[in-house]
Amino acid sequence: MKLTLKASLALAFGLTAGLANAATELVIATVNNGHMIEMQKLTKHFEQANPDIKVKWVTLEEGVLRQRVTTDIATKGGQFDIMTIGMYEAPIWGKKGWLQELKTDAAYDADDLLPAIRSGLSVDGKLFAAPFYGESSMLMYRKDLADKAGVKVADKPTWTDIKDLAAKIHDPKNGVYGICLRGKPGWGDNMAFLSTLVNTFGGQWFDMSWKPQLESKPWKDAINFYVDLLKNYGPPGSSANSFNEILALTNAGKCGMWIDATIAASFVSDPKQSKVADQMAFAQAPTMNTPKGANWLWSWNLAIPAGSKKVDAAQKFITWATSKDYIQLVAKTNGWANVPTGTRKSTYASPEFQKAARFAAAEKAAIDSANPTDSTLPKSPYIGVQFAAIPEFQAIGIAVGQQMSAALAGKTSVDAALKTSQQAAEREMKKAGYYK
After folding, report:
1. Residue 204's closest CA among 384, 353, 334?
2. Where does the record locate the signal sequence feature (predicted)?
3. Using an 8 Å Cβ cutoff, are 87 and 116 in contact?
């Protein structure tokens, strides 16, 4: 009897150990922003519902993440089972066959995804990445400062309006800067913002012959405007500022205005995070010579590399993390004002969300108005608002971003920076065979 009991216990223990060993480990590479960090905290709910799957996170700064996942997928390194990728990579990699097509069921309701976002993540109608949150860009400003200056900000302001208001509310002696804008170099960093600025000044990255246009009048006008604006009314050290740095300045009450990702609205209007939450107001991104391409379109998405050995488990996790139920879970845990936005129609239709998120209408208007297939005044051969969806753009955007940051820091002139940028862009495009 004792032997039988021992044998039974040993068998049970062996089975348990076997099950534990058999648990699938998903390694997920992601970016170190608020919504993604929150997803990591809530992953325990997924693991409880799926005890055979364990999740391991690799959390990286945005630039490092892009580098790591690009290298891994291009070399078929297999380090990650799920990657956090942007709207730039998704269609390029999907077309190359580097990503698994996502298969969703009726409960997932893919038709609930915002059309602009879903379209940007699809190739030939096939979805290659699921949006965790989506965004456009818009104006976030201190209404108390505008009121004090006697200025009523239009729902669709011009860049001339913005410059005038920046001059009136700039008060560096009291720690308030008229405007804060990205300056840190990167194709998805300062160039995300600057591409929209150039678009609305009437510029483009490439003409219909794929020739770079970086020394054109719209580029010169836009970059000179940007450098002068930040030199006169921005915080010191703007050339090193990216999203997180400006978010901290804004939440401390130091930025009178900020044009950046709509996702920031949920942070700057949160009294737990922002000293000026009650004063923040929202409008559309400014325009200059044209409204085309004035506000960007972006999403952070979860995707599965084509060579993954854990497709079923990865699909399960992505379905969970980008579902309506996940949004409800965040709302229940942290309140409706903190749910990931920019992905689903049902979120914006929710009365609880509309009540909690003062920015909801402005955010959805910005996302809906962004058009990656028609974002420049002259006709362009590429898809994308703040980027050109071609593999060569990453290297070009990085090189140009460094030059723009140097011009902002006063290390070079705008003309010299644009000349060097034009040469770098021409070199890449000729090397890739776009023209001789």
Report:
1. 384
2. 1-22
3. no
Rounded CA-CA distance 119/124 in Å is: 9
The token pair at 333 is 């845990």
Tokens representing residue 83 in the block: 């990657």
Q: Report how far apart the first and last C-alpha atoms of the chain are (Å, whole number).
A: 86
Q: Report d(CA 347, CA 114) in Å as an integer.
A: 10
Beta strands of 11-52 (E only): which ranges? 24-31
Structure letter (DSSP) for residue 150: T
- Separation of alpha carbons 308 and 35, rounded Å: 25
- Quote the strand ranges of 374-415, DSSP E: none
User: Which pLDDT band holds residue 266 (cuts at 50, 70, 90)?
Assistant: confident
As a whole number of angstroms, the distance between CA 140 and CA 136 comes to 12
With CA atoms as reference, report the closest residue to 82 among 106, 56, 104: 56
Residue 21 has pLDDT above 80, yes or no: no
Residue 414 or residue 125, greater confidence: 414
- Give the residues across from 284 on adjacent strands: 138
Confidence at residue 13, expressed as pLDDT on a 0 to 100 scale: 47
Residue type at 348 in one-letter notation: Y
CA distance 55 to 24: 8
The stretch 183-211 carries a mean pLDDT of: 97
Q: Contact, 141 vs 268, CB < 8 A?
A: no
DSSP readout, 158-189? BHHHHHHHHHHH-BGGGTBBS-B---S--TTT
What DSSP assignment string belongs to 265-318?
A: HHHHT-TTT-TTGGGEEEEEPPBSS-STT-S-EEEEEEE-BTT-S-HHHHHHHH
Pick from 18-22, 146-150, 170-174, 282-286: least confident: 18-22
pTM: 0.84
Query: Which residues on adjacent β-strands are paired with residue 288?
Result: none
Q: Which residues of 336-372 are buried (b: 16+ CB within 10 A; e: fewer)?
A: bbbbbbbbbeebbebeebeebbbbbebbbbbbebbeb
Q: Which residues contact 384 (CB under 8 A, 6 or more apart)?
A: 88, 372, 375, 393
* Cβ burial, residue 418 (10 Å; 0-12/13-18/19+): buried
The tokens of 76 are what?
A: 């078929």
CA 282 vs CA 43, 272, 314, 343: distances in Å: 32, 19, 37, 19
